[in-house]
Design brief:
Distance between the termini: 63 Å
Bound molecules: adenosine-5'-triphosphate, magnesium ion
Radius of gyration: 27 Å
Strand content: 5-15%
Largest sheet: 8 strands, mixed
CATH architecture of the largest domain: Orthogonal Bundle
CATH superfamily of the largest domain: cca-adding enzyme, domain 2
Shape: elongated
Structural class: alpha+beta
Number of helices: 23
Strand order of the largest sheet: 1-12-11-2-3-6-5-4
CATH topology of the largest domain: cca-adding enzyme, domain 2
Length: 449
């Protein structure tokens, strides 16, 4: 029986521990007004209502939660009747979204998925949970959650925190422990391994040794997850401000190779070489940008992850006689085709990545009108940032990067001087270019940069 270890962890009722208001630090002042409205309204209508999951975990840490999730014993139809500003979503498991302007409070009905209901819980042959769509009680709901620290319930009735699984103690110990048997829980949903890494890094928690052991064992199962879901998880992993640490940890547990097989291949060939450096620098920069409150773009990071595989393939193709341009085009096509099998990058992302890559050789042209045209390219900034990255890590001439930095800062006249052809060919070309404002396109570069 797949879930036997979880059986041992039950029965639930005697283990419940309630932390009354003075025993924890969650204050209503930290909870969004919309979430409070939802909780109070449900309570007023006679239902039970709790905050659960990441928001409780984050509130206990004194952090501002990303969003507030509510659970209740009201079924979705009943929730809809309570709120005018409510929409039901999801086919497999219906959830209510209560809208307050741009803020959405998700309200879920307690989910039951005990082994005694095996007819309703469908596992595939690897033990992956394919369907669990039955409503249940709070005592049942707790078992389907992943980590003990994600399974704490804040009760609006008396402002207590309800703990069925020792989540509070693990929270204090800063430890991520799976509820139930780790092998079983990871098999049910291998994405939990990525969540383990994400939370460990974000919260600064350590993984429980059993959890770690299990991850080393079943990491490969991640490859059974649909690529669209892995893409979403990959974004969460790398766009949250801790990309570098996340990268190291994913590699440690053998998860990175499932997400980025081509990159892992290059890294293992050239462990201490440039590809690793470029990638690390890109991740570091991205983390710094987020720390400074700036935005980061997914396509830039993916372009950095896959740059080395593209180069490697392109070089192989050139060695077989293909011209550089074609070699890079084909290499990019192949690497992207392979990558989307593991993480389903949307088309606008792959297009932007190609642009960043294809700009790279164009930076070599520094004479004549090409620089002034290049600088108006919609992806110029990303391409230039990528050039800087290459220059910093030995993949491009630092002098070239400096030239482009200077070119952007220069005024029109200086720019014109910088792009003068070398003396030999100067006569014929400069005659055409010299009269100022004769050709607006040629002589007004970079105004919008
Ligand atoms: P974040 O800060 O990223 O929002 P979170 O813990 O709130 O973290 P969500 O994905 O918003 O994560 O999920 C909310 C809650 O639902 C989790 O805390 C957990 O209790 C439960 N949960 C989410 N995904 C899973 C999963 N794959 N397996 C088990 N429980 C899950
Ligand atoms: Mg959440």
């Amino acid at each position: 029986m797949i879930n036997s270890a979880r059986n041992e962890a039950e029965p639930v009722a005697p283990k419940v521990r309630i932390y009354s208001r003075p025993e924890h630090n969650i204050s209503r002042a930290q909870i969004s007004e919309s979430a409070l409205k939802v909780l109070y309204k449900l309570q007023k209508e006679g239902y039970s209502a709790y905050l659960v999951g990441g928001c409780v975990r984050d509130l206990l840490l004194g952090r501002e939660p990303k969003d507030f999730d509510v659970v209740t014993n009201a079924d979705p139809e009943q929730v809809r009747k309570v709120f005018r500003n409510c929409r039901l979503i999801g086919r497999r498991f219906r959830l209510a979204h209560v809208h307050f302007g741009r803020e959405v409070i998700e309200v879920a009905t307690f989910r039951g998925a005990g082994e005694e209901q095996n007819d309703k819980q469908v596992l595939n042959k690897e033990g992956r949970l394919l369907r669990d769509n039955v409503y249940g009680t709070i005592e049942e709901d707790v078992w389907r959650r992943d980590f003990t620290v994600n399974a704490l319930y804040y009760n609006i009735k008396d402002f207590s925190v309800v703990d069925f699984v020792g989540g509070m103690a693990d929270h204090k110990a800063a430890e991520l422990k799976l509820i139930g048997d780790p092998d079983t829980r990871f098999r049910e949903d291998p994405v939990r391994m990525l969540r383990a890494v994400r939370f460990a890094v974000k919260l600064g928690f350590k993984l429980h040794p059993d959890c770690e052991k299990s991850m080393h064992k079943v990491a490969e199962l991640l490859s059974s997850i649909p690529s669209a879901r892995l893409y979403d998880e990959t974004l969460k992993l790398f766009m949250s401000g801790y990309a570098l640490q996340t990268f190291e940890m994913l590699r440690h547990y053998g998860l990175f190779q499932v997400l980025f097989p081509a990159t892992e291949n290059c890294l293992s060939i050239e462990e201490n070489g440039f590809p690793r450096l470029l990638l690390i620098k890109a991740l570091e920069n991205s983390d710094n940008r987020i720390a400074d409150g700036k935005t980061v773009t997914a396509y830039f990071l993916f372009a950095a992850f896959l740059w080395e595989p593209v180069q490697m393939r392109a070089k192989e193709k050139m060695a077989k006689g293909l011209i550089e341009f074609m070699a890079y085009q084909e290499a990019a096509n192949e690497v992207i085709a392979m990558q989307v099998k593991s993480t389903a990058l949307p088309r606008h992302i792959t297009m932007a990545m190609r642009e960043v890559w294809s700009l790279q050789p164009k930076f070599n042209a520094r004479v004549g009108s090409k620089p002034s045209r290049l600088i108006t390219h919609p992806r110029f900034r990303a391409g230039y940032d990528f050039l800087l990255l290459r220059a910093e890590t030995g993949g491009a001439d630092p002098e070239l990067a400096q030239w482009w930095s200077k070119y952007q800062a220069a005024n029109e006249n200086e720019q014109r001087k910088m792009t003068q052809p070398p003396r030999k060919g100067q006569a014929s070309k400069s005659r055409r270019r010299r009269p100022p404002r004769e050709n607006g396109k040629d002589t007004t570069p970079g105004k919008d940069v």
